[in-house]
Write a structure and sequence with these properties.
With about 210 residues, the chain is mostly beta strands.
Length: about 210
């Protein structure tokens, strides 16, 4: 048993020694997400879709990623962000009624190809990929400005495909500890609309 343990320890050490320094990095941060307007007045249906347009809005987020460089400046990046709910006002185009609602929180997960420009103290990078977005809706009842009860039901589909394109830079503070600023554009393809999101975040990155 001891011989096997020693063998696997040596093998594990050899594999790790064969990896270049700072091939892996982990990031954790927070920021804001800016959601573009979606829906159309033409989608208005009395009693079914009285508030067809969701205006542009922003919400806070937490985000994290894990990446590995496998060939020169190229690597893979696994990225996830959780978007908190926020409040928006919807308008009824037929009579001017309005209602304040909470958006649903959601979670995105994507796999990306990443390209880093250099290995110095200042390290810009770009990435492109896709994945899924999962919303966490609830059936809710709100009262509109004119006193009507408005029912919002959860959609049948809560997981949608998405793609993202982003970039940013890492700035080395000490040793393998970096400060990161990240900018990301994400498109979510839902059943009713394509929703564009512009995400900005900042945080810290550990490279090893």
């Amino acid at each position: 048993m001891k011989i096997k343990t020693i063998f696997f320890f040596i093998l594990f050490t050899v594999i790790l020694s064969g990896l270049n320094a700072q091939n892996f990095n982990m990031f954790l941060g927070g920021g804001l997400n800016f959601v573009g307007q979606y829906g159309s007045v033409e989608d208005y249906v009395s009693g079914k879709n009285d508030f067809p347009v969701t205006p542009s809005h922003k919400n806070s987020l937490i985000t994290g990623s894990l990446s590995y460089s496998f060939y020169k400046n190229f690597g893979i990046l696994l990225k996830s962000s959780y978007y908190f709910k926020t409040n928006v006002m919807l308008d009824d185009p037929s009579d001017g009624d309005s209602v304040n609602i909470d958006t649903s929180p959601h979670l995105s997960l994507s796999l990306n190809i990443v390209y880093s420009l250099n290995k110095g103290r200042f390290q810009p990078f770009f990435y492109l990929g896709g994945g899924i977005d999962k919303i966490f809706p609830e059936d809710k009842v709100y009262t509109s400005k004119y006193g009507y009860e408005i029912v919002f039901l959860s959609p049948e589909r809560t997981v949608d495909p998405m793609f993202n394109l982003g970039g940013g830079f890492d700035f080395r503070i000490i040793s393998s500890f970096y400060f990161r600023i990240n900018i990301d554009y994400m498109m979510i393809f839902t059943q009713s609309a394509n929703i564009g999101n512009f995400e900005t975040s900042a945080g810290f990155c550990l490279k090893f």
